Amino acid sequence: MKRYHLVTFGCQMNQHDSDRIRDVLEGSGYAPCETLEHADLVLLNTCSVREKAEQKLRSEVGRLGLLKRTRPDLVLAVAGCVAQQEGERLLRGLPQIDVVIGPDQAAALPRLLAEVEQGGLPQVRTEFDLHEPRFLPAAPRGRAKVSDFVTIMKGCDERCTFCVVPTTRGPERYRASEEIIAEVAARVAAGTREITLLGQTVDSYQDPLGKLPGGQRDEFSATRMGRLQRDETEFPSLLRALAERVPGLQRLRYTSPHPRHLTSALVAAHRELGVLARHVHMPVQSGSDRVLRRMARRYTVAEYRERVGALQRAVPGLTLSSDIIVGFPGETREDFALTLELVREVGFVSVFGFKYSPRPFTPALKLGDDVSEEEKSERLAQLFELSEGQRAAHLARLVGRTEQVLVEGPGERGGYTGRTERNEIVHLQAARDVTGKLVEVTIAEAFKHSLRGTPTDRALLAAEGESGSAGAAAPTAELEPRAATRRSGHRALPLLH
Ligand code: SAH
Ligand code: F3S
To answer: What's the rounded Cα separation, in Å, for the pair 493 and 100?
Structure first.
């Protein structure tokens, strides 16, 4: 049996695509191989969102090229965004490569590999599946993951001037809502408890078969347009359909949304659907209107504030995280100061900060790259210091509170690791296997990026109970408002099930 070794770079979308590639390979007779040296096929699923990611691919291919000298039968395939972006050109620069496939071509992989193995020329397949978009459902395998991803759309119709994704992932294509609901239901039936809906602009979702109600009026649009616009997305309706039709689903998240589609209907869904996690990642990119305009983000800082503010008011205790680019062409120190101000004001508990990196085929190339590397590093360090401080303060405030932790699996030192309803990582000890269970814990200690909690159920305490001190802090009057107000129509969550 042939064996494959798969290396994944980049975002959650790529992780998810890699899982589908595994399904395809294993369905056609390949077995996974932990070590690169013993594999017959090495596949790199690449990322091109920033220059560094692309450099990584080149050095990795160089390394594999050396391996190929000693093992000429080794097949080397490159998938993902660099493959899509460069296509044939990749072969010219890196002749060791045998197969280049874009993100929409996973299903063609066995055929292309067979060609190469029979002595054919290197194969390149990078068409987008524009006419009949395919969303490969996950193949059932082993124990279901407690938390898993389901793709609902692919591609991006935004044209943020810095971003290569519209080139590498193509235009927006949506998956039929019935298919999404069926896949989520199947995962939940198999034991998955939490689903993250995936898409490049996940909240722009519309059902291609028109099975969902859309078209509510967006109260926020009055700010910009002077009159109420219809919300053209059907994303809030999809969330409602999932909450209603998959009652076993415990938590629902999504990533990554665009602030433009954070409409009043989406805020209402967060207010009313208890299944939605109390954490939203809402990329803002900059706190300066001048920079946002040059990025073509299609919202102002005031609009962003208004929308996330409504979300925060609708869901007590909801936390926000964001993506921010520093050193975008023309970004002055004043612009950057406005970004820091926004980070403070919104109170993001986590910020993914990036130095601007010029990407091929992007409109921002015209704007140059005028902020020095040194200045970018300085701004990134300031952003990091601020956001880390906010994260630390947030985690510290949780000590003593009671939280529902969905346990994802065994963690360090014989314990377990899970996440709160927002998204904080919690380590805990338990006397029996609590993987996949919702465990109520008292937060005992805050670390830099995670928390330690003690189960409130004494029956679970044995493993740690001896220490006596853990979790001694009683829940205080500061306890976060329970979710009762937003649980209308939603089942009460059992402590353990
Ligand atoms: N909506 C997408 C965004 C993809 S890119 C998603 O699914 O996450 C992820 C983040 O990378 C962006 O939000 C942006 O902050 C950053 N990024 C994208 N292009 C960049 C570039 N050219 N330079 C620096 N950062 C970039
Ligand atoms: Fe990129 Fe903007 Fe789309 S960041 S993925 S072009 S929303």
So the answer is: 47
> Is 138 part of a structural domain of the chain?
no
CATH number at residue 450: 2.40.50.140
| In contact, 285 and 160? CB cutoff 8 Å | yes
Give the amino acid at 126. Answer: T
The continuous run of DSSP H or E covering 190 comes out as helix 177-190
Cα of 298 vs centre of ligand 1, distance in Å, is 15
With tokens 């064996």, the residue in question is: 3
- In this predicted structure, what is the pLDDT of residue 37? 86
Same domain, residue pair 70 and 95:
yes
Question: For ligand 1, atom 15, which residue shows the shortest CA distance?
Answer: 323
The torsion defined by the Cα of 258, 262, 263 and 268, in degrees rounded to 10, comes to 150
pLDDT of residue 161: 98
Cis omega (within 30 of 0) on the bond before 256? yes
pLDDT averaged over every residue in the chain: 89
User: Whose CA is closest to 440, among 468, 460, 462?
Assistant: 460
Report which protein residue has its CA nearest ligand 2's atom 7: 158
Cβ within 8 Å of residue 285, ≥6 positions away: 160, 291, 292, 295, 297, 323, 324, 325, 328
Q: Is 337 exposed, middle or buried (0-12, 13-18, 19+ CB in 10 A)?
A: middle
For residue 122, what is the DSSP state?
P
Q: Report helix, strand or coil for 454.
A: strand
**pLDDT per position as a tens digit, 340-367:** 999 999 999 999 999 999 999 999 999 9
Read off the CATH number of the domain in which 316 is found: 3.80.30.20
Cβ-contact 43, 21 below 8 angstroms: yes
List of residues 6+ apart from 451 with CB closer than 8 A? 395, 398, 399, 420, 424, 425, 426, 427, 443, 444, 445
Domain that holds residue 368: 147-397
- The answer to whether residues 251 and 381 belong to one domain is yes
**Same domain, residue pair 406 and 389:** no
Instruction: Give yes or no for residue 158 CB within 6 A of ligand 1.
Output: no
Distance 493 CA to ligand 1 centre (A): 35
Within a domain: 140: no
Q: 257 and 160, same structural domain? A: yes
Rg of the Cα trace of the chain?
24
Protein residue closest via CA to atom 2 of ligand 2: 160
Q: What is the pLDDT of residues 307-318, one digit of tens each?
A: 999 999 999 999
| pTM for this predicted structure | 0.90
Q: Quick one: 189 and 79 in the same domain?
A: no
CA-nearest residue for atom 6, ligand 2, is: 160
What spacing in Å lies between the alpha carbon of 50 and ligand 1's midpoint? 8
Q: Based on the domain organization, do 368 and 407 belong to the same domain?
A: no
Do residue 154 and residue 206 come from a single domain?
yes
